[in-house]
Amino acid sequence: MLFQHIYDEDLAQASYLIGCQATGEAIVVDPRRDVERFVALAERHGLRIAHVTETHIHADFQSGSRELAARTGARLHLSAEGGPDWSYGFEGEPLRHGDVLKVGNLRVEAVHTPGHTPEHLSFLVTDGATTEAPGFFLTGDFVFVGDVGRPDLLDEAAGGVDTRFEGAKRLFASLRDHFLPLPDFVQVWPGHGAGSACGKALGAVASTTVGYERLVAWWAPYVQDGDEQGFVDVLLDGQPDAPLYFGRMKVTNKAGPALLGERPPVPELAEGAVHDRLGAAGDLVLVDTRVVEDGALDHVPGAYVVPEGKKFATYASYAIDPERERRDLVLLAADAAQAAWMRDRLGWTGIDRVAGFVTSLEGLTAGPAPSVAPAELDQVKDAFLLDVRTATEHAAGAIPGALQRHVGRIAFRHDDLPTDRPIVVYCQTGARSAVAAGVLRALGFQDVRELTGSYDGYAATVLAKDARPVPV
Asked: How far apart are CA 460 and CA 102, in angstroms?
């Protein structure tokens, strides 16, 4: 048996390739859209991808299940649980609770584990060549290391109304009926790790066991004691802000993500040809991928700010709403290879319209990005303060009068922000506020300023000054 955990730190998302080396067959669970990685991994181990499936209709990334099945000819299996409102809009073989997929000598059993979503499946994997006992449990967004999937995303990001309460009760039942009865030795491999917004306290290690979660997880005593209401209350309290692109992911993943096929290289565009096509009146918009500090020194008006790095896909999903942004994207990249890397990661959240890349910003920049120092904040007449941190960060300390709105919501919820007042944006250190400020400028807001040093800078100057003892 071959078991491969494929993890992306950017979106904190896990995919799995599991193969029977005796027969050369493999199954992939929860693949991303950059399916070449899974094809190459299977080929490296002498395996043929015969089956593709997913645990549920994902909200945080664009599923690659349909893409991978189309690329390899594998059988695509999709949950048939959850009722008609949770039926997939594209073809796949239906999977129901108790169904078993045979992958050579391996048994992959579907277990209906609703709560995070109504149609959610987990997968018990048994290496039939050595034992009749299951050894691995792929839990998707059902059970994480030290936590469980949040049941409120349908309310927070997908337009649901009070679905969280029923979802929490279903999650309680799933834990009681389908998780705790398993043997202690069963390994638990979840769909996400620390940094994902799909839970509030996800562990930073890749896997756990049923026995360990039974011993230490916060939820275990509630389920073992039958305290459903206590479980619901604790689970729903303090869940993190849900980025609003999650709602778009739910819709497209349910209907069927567009097939990308073999993609050509990203073309390099001449800066001169790009210049006149940028801006609100043009058909292109730049994605400025420089580090935040460089962009602040010499910004590109109207560009999206998405620093290249470990959180490129995350910040891009916060900044760019492809349903509203009708212009094609131009990437700042060092070369075609880096541009292709960026295009792949944009595709992880369904941002597909990339026209090309440029290697230089000559003639496109306009000097330092508008900003204001914390000590001069009270001199900005009629300033509108916008805190783009999480609600938890805001509650721990904020500038008086600031509106809290997570950076992942600005591109999707900005109609109530003023157009006739200076907007001063801040986060904790400056990275998220640069992304948010870029969004607002790309949307046409005329006076958007970043708070120098963000909240840390404010605390180190204004708050520190206010806290000094008054001389007597």
From this structure: 60
Is residue 262 assigned to a domain?
Answer: no
pLDDT in tens, 148-203: 999 998 887 666 778 999 999 999 999 999 999 999 999 999 999 977 766 666 77
Q: What three-state secondary structure class fits 447? A: coil
What are the beta bridge partners of residue 29? 16, 53
Cα angle: 151, vertex 152, 156; to 5 degrees: 155
What helix, strand, coil percent values describe the chain, rounded to 5?
30, 20, 45
Percent of the chain with pLDDT over 90: 89
pLDDT in tens, 312-333: 999 999 999 999 999 999 999 9
pLDDT digits (tens, 9 = 90+) for 410-447: 999 999 999 999 999 999 999 999 999 999 999 999 99
DSSP 304-366: EE--SSTTHHHHHHHH--TTT--SEEEEE-SSHHHHHHHHHHHHTTT---EEEEES--TTT--
Q: How many domains does the chain have?
A: 3
Q: Say which DSSP state 382 is in.
A: T
* H helix or E strand, kind and range, residue 37: helix 36-44
Does residue 388 share a domain with residue 283? no
Which residues face 101 on adjacent strands? Answer: 108
46 and 114 assigned to the same domain:
yes
Q: 305, 331, 358 — which closes off a domain?
A: 358
Are 245 and 97 in the same domain? Answer: yes
Write down the H helix ranges in 124-270.
Answer: 153-156, 163-174, 210-216, 220-225, 228-236, 245-255
Catalytic residue from among 108, 354, 427, 434: 427
CB atoms within 10 A of CB 446: 10
List the beta bridge partners of residue 49: 26
What's the whole-number mean pLDDT along residues 220-228?
A: 98
427 in active site:
yes
